[in-house]
Design brief:
Chain lengths: 110, 116
């Protein structure tokens, strides 16, 4: 029940394009789904999260969607900029801990 | 202050050395964590301290010894490490362990450890 599958592992886009990263979970009891961004040389930082009572949440250029039936949630970044280049991790809460997805390296080319 | 501060940022040590990694937060958080991150991998949990008591040890070898002197400080004592222990060690905190289902995990920038 702890696994979180994340795809793709790498994603290259041109500046201004959109990027979508998807995570699939197996534990039906999961009700909180955060996304973390890790820039080079830094620790992960929470950028957006969603709870199971909503299907979508937006914050400027980023959004997260949740499909509880299919057990997957996705991160959407629109109008990508070079500073969006980083590694993105989805996560799900376990017992007193966060279990991270395998990560997606996003590269935004000018 | 929403920072988790880790020192040192970089550490190189031999297999016979004893060293310590330090972590500090002043957000009043009562849960603190050590994660290990290898290159191109997600962070993996090592230890959880809840209200200054060790609550989770993810079967970490005894050459890693955590310590929580008070609610703001977390140490990781290192002794007789192996080259494969080279990694980025991340400290994190949260308001309380049970609130990870609704709250945020705050990470420090990490201590990059190289074992020769």
């Amino acid at each position: 029940g702890e696994n979180v599958e994340q795809h793709p592992s790498t994603l290259s886009v041109q500046e201004g394009d959109s990027a979508v990263i998807k995570c699939t979970y197996s534990d039906s009891a999961s009700n909180y789904f955060p996304w973390y961004k890790q820039e080079l040389g830094k620790g992960p930082q929470l950028i957006i999260d969603i709870r199971s009572n909503v299907g979508e949440k937006k914050d400027q250029r980023i959004a997260v969607t949740l499909n509880k039936t299919a057990k997957h949630f996705s991160l959407h970044i629109t109008e990508t900029q070079p500073e969006d280049s980083a590694v993105y991790f989805c996560a799900r809460p376990g017992f007193q801990k966060l279990v991270f997805g395998t990560g997606t390296r996003l590269l935004v080319s000018p | 202050d929403t920072e988790v501060t880790q020192t040192p940022k970089h550490l190189v040590m031999g297999m016979t050395n004893k060293k310590s990694l330090k972590c500090e937060q002043h957000m009043g958080h009562r849960a603190m964590y050590w994660y290990k991150q290898k290159a191109k991998k997600p962070p993996e949990l090592m230890f959880v301290y809840s209200y200054e008591k060790l609550s989770i040890n993810e079967s970490v070898p005894s050459r890693f010894s955590p310590e929580c002197p008070n609610s703001s400080l977390l140490n990781l004592h290192l002794h007789a490490l192996q080259p494969e222990d080279s990694a980025l060690y991340l400290c994190a905190s949260s308001r309380a362990p049970g609130e990870l289902s609704t709250g945020e995990l705050f990470f420090g920038e990490g201590s990059r450890l190289t074992v020769l």
